[in-house]
Amino acid sequence: MASFSALLVLLAFASPSLGQDPSCSTVKIAYRSKRLTEEDVPSLAVNGSDLRVCPKNSGKQCCSQRMEDRFTVWSKSDFSEAVPSKIEKLKDVFDEQAKIFDEYFEGLIKKSQQNLDRMFKKIYVNHYLENSKLFMDLFDDLRDYYAGKTSADVNSIVDDFFSNLMIRMYKIMNKDSQLSDSYLVCVSKQMDNLKPFGDIPAKLKQQVRKVLIYAKSFSQALFAGRDVVHSLRIAAVSSKECEYNLVKLKYCSWCKAMTTIKPCHKFCTDVYRGCVADLAKVNTEWAKYMKALKELLEKQNGPTNIHDVVMQLNLEISFAIMNFQSQDKLKEVKQKASEATECGSPGLTKRSTEDFFLEENNRERRESESPQRVDSSYLKTLSSDFTKKMRIADDFWSSLPEKICNDISVTDRGTDCWNGIGKGSYTSPDDRGEGDDVPNPTIRKANRKLEGLVDQLYAAINGDDVNPSGSGKEIIDVEGSSSGSGSASGEGSSDEVTTPDPTTTEPGNEIEDENDKGVAMAGGVDEEVLRVEHSSAQRQLLEWWSLSLTVCLLCIPLIA
Q: Could you tell me which residues are beta bridge partners of residue 410?
């Protein structure tokens, strides 16, 4: 991969002179504000020939190698705060919207269950109270299907409910006859032929299955999308090359005694585009995923509205019961049942005056219940809020540099900004480069996950459930990490200047002094310095061990 810094070309109106502070006092003040010793800052501006990251061919400098090492540590911290924090906000949005929808649909099923219980207690009284578990189990089974806690499909759940309902009702309406359980079960298996509830079971199967698949797949896809974002947040780690360029972006201006100047916006986006180049490689699959999510949301608000279907279950089931109790249907069912030779003969039946599931004194009350359309405005509000909140996710990965730089850079196109070597304008070249074409393992895994989610969402749109079990609500950590790398470059309207590249050794641009050839650099920080700063515990242990060894050696002659 071409070096990021090698492509960072600036054409800028940049003053080679120092800022208005040759004594570097402003730099010392800024340095102290970071709670660091000002001894790292030169007392007076120096030629900066020993600098390894910041430009050293543009006049006097208020920087030292030690300061560059500090800058690199700060840049790594800046990246860790800027990039993962933006991604974390996106994850939080997904988590929030997934939980809101999940609570909404779980609440919808619960409210529909409560409505049926309240209505049937008034209309069917004792017959309902004696058989209420049958109805409550239906809602529990539908809830389990939505939550991915059962392998049963919606068709079998609805079929089992109406089959058991037919047995209960047939037994009640023939309670003066001795009907064996085996006979009742056999008759219930003839439902497709007998049609005691008319076309309502078939209608409910189609509608309920569709809305349950819509809701379940939508919820699962939101939680899974949250997990993808979570894995990419973990993978957002700065590369050493990225850290070098962040030093040039945010801290090399200190070397010119310009501690408060903000970087040019385009300069900033070029640098961060290189730092998060790997993350941008999910944008294609991400766009497909977002498109599929929105299409499924539209389906849920379509003619088969999930709110209306779930909330009118009590009315549809009550219509089914009324259909079975009609004189003509009851006579038809009994006739067909008697002709079903495989079930045997039920014997003579005597109709009871109290054998109707719907008690006579409640018939008028039930018939006055009209199938009024349930208000589904909350679903529309929910969908509208979802669309607004999720706008942050559109093109999130490709626009991530813009989101970060809007917070830290000059947003206008003027020249009052830091362009990498001085105060002036900055223009990107046409060819910036975007890092390696092949994404790292974490990015590849994220893309595969998104591809699978897109397939699942479109299957749901077409009425198919390709993921019958599992709720997907738990956050799943994805192993692996990505290191942002890439390139950024720019043009201005002055002499062409090449920013020093810490990975090259051209004359006047070396990153190592002649007396320091053996010291390996990591992001502009001398490894010896890092060992001193970050491994003090190991150093103290080594000193203790050396002291102990010395004492032992001194004791040997005395023992002898």
A: 264
Query: 176-235: per-residue pLDDT in tens?
Result: 777 788 888 888 888 888 899 999 999 999 999 999 999 999 999 999 999 999 999 998
- Asked whether 266 and 426 are in contact (CB, 8 A), the reply is yes
Q: Which residues contact 240 (CB under 8 A, 6 or more apart)?
A: 522, 523, 524
CB 507 within 8 A of CB 245: no
CB 287 within 8 A of CB 393: no
* Closest residue by Cα to residue 16 from 258, 256, 267, 262: 256
E strand or H helix at 526: strand 525-526
3-state secondary structure 136-185: HHHHHHHHHHHCCCCCCCHHHHHHHHHHHHHHHHHHHHCCCCCCCHHHHH
Q: What's the pLDDT tens digit per position in 238-295? A: 899 999 999 999 999 999 999 999 999 999 999 999 999 999 999 999 999 999 999 9
pLDDT band at 541 (very low <50, low <70, confident <90, very high): very low
SS (H, E, C) 2-53: CCCHHHCEEECCCCCCCCCCCCCHHHHHHHHHCCCCHHHCCCCCECCCCCCC
Taking the C-alpha atoms of residue 437 and residue 397, their distance in angstroms, rounded to an integer, is 16
Instruction: Give every CB contact of residue 258 below 8 A, 6+ residues apart in sequence.
Output: 19, 418, 423
Short-list 230, 152, 108, 151, CA closest to 474: 230
Distance CA 125, CA 108 (A): 24
Q: Give residue for tokens 């009702």.
A: 169
Distances (CA, A) of 510 to 66, 70, 251, 503, 518: 16, 19, 20, 9, 14
Which residues sit opposite 497 in a β-bridge?
10
> Of 480, 466, 388, whose CA–CA distance to 220 is shortest?
466
CA separation for the pair 415, 12 (Å, rounded): 9
| 497 token code pair | 């200047």
Look at residues 36, 97, 190, 102 and name the one whose alpha carbon lies nearest to residue 388: 97
Spell 455-484 as b/e; 16+ CB within 10 A means b.
ebbbbbbeeebebeeeebbeeeebeeebbb
Q: How far apart are CA 312 and CA 462, in angstroms?
A: 23
What radius of gyration, in Å, describes the C-alpha atoms of the chain? 37
Say how far apart CA 292 and CA 431 lie, in whole Å. Answer: 33
Q: How many CB atoms lie within 10 A of CB 79?
A: 22
- List C-alpha distances in Å: 300 to 107, 139, 214, 387: 16, 20, 7, 13
